[in-house]
Design a protein that fits this description.
single chain, 74 residues, alpha+beta, Alpha-Beta Plaits, globular
């Protein structure tokens, strides 16, 4: 199990999507929201994710495909 710190940059067109919920439901991870901010234009979230390295990378790949930019803070 590893710990990964990331910052997500979420475009406005995804603001109605349950992104955080899907991350937890679809992948075997634990997630802590350290800080987040959302507006009508966009949003961002600073997260600490714990789990298997392959599972975390799979999840991050899914987010990128959705158009979410990810900055590694580990």
């Amino acid at each position: 199990m590893i710990e990964k710190r990331v910052e997500l940059f979420i475009p406005g067109e995804l603001k109605e999507e349950p992104i955080i919920c899907r991350m937890i439901k679809d992948h075997d991870i634990e997630l802590r929201i350290i800080e987040a901010s959302f507006s009508t234009e966009s949003g961002w979230a600073y997260l600490i994710i714990n789990g298997d390295k392959k599972e975390i990378e799979k999840m991050l790949g899914s987010l990128r495909k959705m158009g979410i930019k990810i900055e590694d803070k580990s």
